[in-house]
Amino acid sequence: MAIDQTTVFDEKLQAQIAATAAAAIKPGSAYTLLDFSAFSQGHYTEVVMRGVIEAPIPAKLRDDVSERALRTFDACMTGQSAFARKSLLAAVAQVQSAATNDLAKSDILAALKDIGDKVRASPAADRVLFLASDMLENSSVASFYAHNTVRRVDPAAELKKADAAGLIADFGGARVYVIGAGLLSGDIRSKNAYRDPQTMTALKQFWTLYFQQSNAKVQEFGAPALLSPISY
Questions:
Q1: Which of 32, 49, 101, 150 could form a disulfide with 185 if both were Cys (CB 3.0 to 4.6 A apart)?
Q2: Residue 183 and residue 150: Cα distance in Å, rounded?
């Protein structure tokens, strides 16, 4: 899970982010929380926390284990999941509380190049990236803004810029879910709340192409909310 600290989410989206993060905590899974931002003013991509939830005893083996040992193990598993969920949600809340609209730049492409390395390195057979971000690049490579609102981008042209800058990543076949796409910051949002469908379609097309080139697949592009739960 990666959270963009240049994106300030409203309470409803924060709640959906928290619920989606909590759903990742299940037996036999591993999780990593990262935050990212512009590479300035002390902000950069970093691993906030990571953890592993042990797999349960296979059903066919449970009959070979004493009832007392099973009760102890099951209680331990329940406690492990509860602790992991509580710790992850606290970390997610802390990351979101540090989000700011004050940074002039948003180096999403550069951050995703770093994040891709971490996702690809996971030994998991099924890799899932939950990405909480407005997905509005604003860097020396490209800017998705014009006149204080979202610019209608040319997906193919922007992909060429990312490729030329060496910012195509490799996510190792991960499934990608985005929440927050197209969000605008407070003052800008109040003046330019409307984003036409063509602009949002172009934004989705760019990121769909980018992740295809980066050995990943966008399963859902929340603009801004996810419409269905993530299948972990």
A1: 101
A2: 9
